[in-house]
Amino acid sequence: MTRSRSAAVLVIGNEILSGRTRDANLQTLAGALARRGIRLAEARVVEDRFEAIVHALNALRSTYDFVFTTGGIGPTHDDVTTECVAAAFGRSVVEDPEAVRRLVEYYPAGQLNDARLKMAHVVAGAELIDNPVSAAPGFRVENVFVLPGVPRILEAMLPDVVARLPAGTPIASTAVMAWVRESEIATALGEVQASHPGVDIGSYPFARDGRLGTSLVVRGTDAAARDAATQAIRAMLEARAVEYTVDSAP
Amino acid sequence: MTRSRSAAVLVIGNEILSGRTRDANLQTLAGALARRGIRLAEARVVEDRFEAIVHALNALRSTYDFVFTTGGIGPTHDDVTTECVAAAFGRSVVEDPEAVRRLVEYYPAGQLNDARLKMAHVVAGAELIDNPVSAAPGFRVENVFVLPGVPRILEAMLPDVVARLPAGTPIASTAVMAWVRESEIATALGEVQASHPGVDIGSYPFARDGRLGTSLVVRGTDAAARDAATQAIRAMLEARAVEYTVDSAP
User: B210: which DSSP letter?
Assistant: First the structure.
């Protein structure tokens, strides 16, 4: 089993920390990275503040193979991500001619005002990332991908982002939905985990139609190891006459 | 205007980083903190790994007035938060007699097994936080509140958590929903922000019924400053004949 590459997500936005908006991009990125065989190891959410963004970005880009920022690359005064990424790398912010060309093509004649032109500003030396929705590109600088906060635009950019990442063995999971409280099987489940170190087994209680159950999630890159651990969980549940269903997600 | 106290949330859970689960607790905590006048300044999501949790917890508790952890205090092998908090503080893990009493009272006679008893383990010197749903308590150590990951249990614990926090001036917001693309008003909006430094003004594009609009959110502790900035935004929109509605949220 080769080592999975690691990644972090940096969510930039007061609206998430105020409680006004529930973040959706972390889950989207997490799924795409897992399918590409990249382990999302950490996420941070910071305010739209220069020092906070630069500090977090430098911490994450020196720790993980890849960092994905979301938010703060629009046309308004609270969009400060590009200048923060530039500062973190000690580079300047430049107007990218190809980004300008895309904006000129996108907006009706005469409507490319100064605020819109700001969206053609990227960090010097960056590669552009395609935005099929509204033209204003994301960009990549070394191991940092700078993406928008609007979920439908971020999703539309993902194919171009993923194509720039090395393809590893997908990290997949199998979920066993068991009609038992997790505290009744906790010791036995711990033994299954101990004897299957090649996978991560998570235990998540749920309530459905007034009944309590536990979702037992087996996760890893090695399909045979996942199958063996899933089999061990099924045997453990059957020995206790616990009802369950198995759900394999890609 | 007195300085708002600051807080961070530390979400502990592989299920969030794998994309399996979309976190709900950050938004819940953010709203409760804002109403108590506490500024949520950062959030982190880490894996269920000892070093990752201890490192993040020590960074956050030395930076912010309060830290709220979610997840990892259940009965299974992947619940490692309590031992991590203990390690971060250089304290031991102890079985709390009052927590045991609550679990004894909650479970039917003879059903308090070893895994369930694990939920009475807290960091030495901790104060218990009431769990009206399933008895197993959260706890507080100095400026760190250790809370569960299951959203309905976390929500049920919030009244007891909030009662232990100092009451400041609530951080409130007013949202002006304007039927205009943010890039058309970006420069004017930046001028409103510059002349109203006592509030934070955020700009968030949205699409509804096929129309594009922008939500302009004025946020701060000072009601008069919020009203003045909101008034300036309305005047700016009216000067451009932009339709809008105003929504005051507590």
Answer: T
